[in-house]
From TrEMBL:
UniProt xrefs under InterPro entries: Mem_transp_PIN-like, Na+/solute_symporter_sf
A Pfam short name: Mem_trans
Subcellular location: Cell membrane
Record organism: Methylobacterium terrae
Name of this chain's protein: Transporter
Upper classification of the organism: Bacteria, Pseudomonadati, Pseudomonadota, Alphaproteobacteria, Hyphomicrobiales
GO biological process: transmembrane transport
Amino acid sequence: MTGAVLLALLPVVLLTALGFALRRRRFLAESFWPQAERLGYFVLLPSLFFHGLATARVEAVPVGALALTLILSTLAVAALVLAVRPLLRVDGPAFTSVFQGSVRFNNYVGVTLAAGLFGQKGIALAAICNAAIVPTVNILCVLVFARHGAARLTARGIVRQLATNPLIVSSLAGMAVQLLGWGLPPGLEPALRTLGAASLPIGLLCVGAALEFGGARAWLRPVASASAMKFLAMPAATLAVASLLGLNGPALTTALLFQVLPTASSAYILARQLGGDAPLMAGITAMQTVLALAVMPLVLIGLSAWMPIG
């Protein structure tokens, strides 16, 4: 398991580093990066979520217990982050980055790990994780941006953001296709799969391009706070809820994997779109990705020593 975790995380680190190098070397025009971010947010990531949920095989998967475990643990950690907000000593936009760093996750790494560990069943489990967490996290983040972001939203603006958020809409649409058993047309399915696959390199290159290490010292507190929530509080809450609901075996392993994933590149794109602290968000994302190389194997090994999760 440790080797699989490291192999899945290493490409993420390398692509982020490549984006950083390309931007610093001015290999591409400055105008490229905002357009790439927009493409990822509105087209590539929605394609990934929609395709993954619409085509997943969910037979013999404890859908209810797995989804409830993920939703309740995410809500618990979100409430904890909001409760400790006065202790963080950061402004509103910076707090949105800490919040995203505490609850958002890297879908690409999660799917890769689940598939590597459990094959086709792992893909189905990963799809359920995405279906449960993606809408939950995006709704929470939009609400936090509305309260603390630089671009304050009215009640009507919040509803509009939720109703038109491409990540939420694509997730709900994929779930609807799955529940109705419609399937995807032969020509459309590979096109969506290809677009979704492109979201990983584009998103991580954008994260790397946005890195500014000049303010790294000022990031210490928010990075440490978000990482503590992500790598300590989130798996602990997940395990507690899973124990109450009787979730075990591969489903529990997959839930724990998803809840200790580093923050996704989509967090940076959302910060740019909704008035968050985008440079800080990129810093948290990059630092968590590097930290995850050590933390994720340790968390899983520690939890498996206490409770069988495989």
